[in-house]
Amino acid sequence: MYDARTAHGHGMNVRRFRMLGIIAILLLAVLAVLAVPAALYVWKGATAEVLDRAAREQLKRIGHAHEFATLSLGEVHYRVCGPETGQPVLLIHGLAIPMQVWDAVAATLADAGFRVITFDGYGRGLSSRPAVVYDEALFDSLNLELLDYLGVTEPVHIVGYSAGGVAATVFAARHPERLRSLALIAPAGLLRSAPLPTWLLRIPGMQDWLGRIVAPARFSGVVDESTAGLANGKALSASVHEQFRYAGSGEAIVSMLRRYPLSGAENYYAQAGAHDAPALILWGERDTTVPFERAQDVKRYLPRAELISLADAEHDLVYVRPDWVAAELLGFYRPAAPRRMQSDEPAVCT
Asked: CATH: 3.30.450.20, 1.10.8.60, 3.40.50.1010, 3.40.50.1820. Which one for 53-336?
């Protein structure tokens, strides 16, 4: 005998079973999607090399490293070129490319008689990757400690490129007694928006995942593209890929994107502009990374600075147009510059 209630109940059970099956399939699909980046994250962490003392000594033996300074938060990779009696020039690199970005500019300044200091900031190149917040205070202390380590007591010419322009400006604002001049090359600090949306970084584990997976691929690709065809392009590209071989570099960069004042640095610029040290601003008019429009903002805070732009240059002008950058710096320094070295006085580098 046909029972309508039993049949209806049986149909409901079938529909519920099918719905549970669909939900189970969807959950498995979600887990599968999540498993891929999770596995990649674990694999990248397991295969990253450790940049310890033994690794640094080996890098020096094969000619891939220069000198290391032991500072309060770790080892800092640095190089000094030029005569010991030359006026000191501290060159601060940007966000992703370590100190090799300055090679051509540093060589020209050293040949002109300056004592040129280049270095890898914490988290980049072959310097330590301390587990700290990567903000302006970290890099200000690094700059001071490195100068003290090298025994530089006289005022310095400080040059900051891109994100390094913020560090240079902070140095000028906080330590005017140690500053001889300030030169900024397409400096960050006054961008109109933050590089990463805050909501994204609030997702649990997102900052670590971006640092370990996304940042190395993204910045390596950008540098590969911008250095293609340059005489020193392979060396620059290799320096970026090498830094990402070691654990912590991508995480340091993402920490900078979150905590370092790539925007909102108006107070530092205002404080730097209140001092009377000579200042120079260099910019490429085709720059889209730190748009040339920001040059007038910087000039407003540094009213005594000279602004010089290059019409056909982009953000990469330090390594694409190093001759122009070096020539402008030498012109800026020339009133108080040392004599140009003779050809039989090579610029010795450590």
From this structure: 3.40.50.1820
E strand map for 54-209: 67-71, 74-81, 88-92, 115-119, 156-161, 179-185
- The half-sphere exposure of 137 on its side-chain side, counting CA atoms within 13 A, is 3
Could you tell me which residues come within 8 angstroms of residue 86 by beta carbon, excluding any fewer than 6 positions away? 110, 113, 114, 115, 116, 338
Nearest one of 108, 153, 52 to 321, comparing CA atoms: 108
Largest CA distance in the chain: 114
- Residues 318 and 72: their CA atoms lie apart, in Å, by 30
Edge-to-edge order in the sheet of strand 306-310: 67-71, 74-81, 115-119, 88-92, 156-161, 179-185, 279-284, 306-310
pLDDT in tens, 283-310: 999 999 999 999 999 999 999 999 999 9
Q: Which residue has the higher pLDDT, 324 or 7?
A: 324
Report pLDDT for 22: 64
pLDDT confidence of 181, banded at 50, 70, 90? very high
Report DSSP state, residue 102: G
pLDDT in tens, 107-132: 999 999 999 999 999 999 999 999 99
Q: Where are the domains of the chain?
A: 1-47, 53-336
DSSP conformational letter for 128: -
Best CA proximity match to 114, nearest among 158, 50, 48, 54: 158
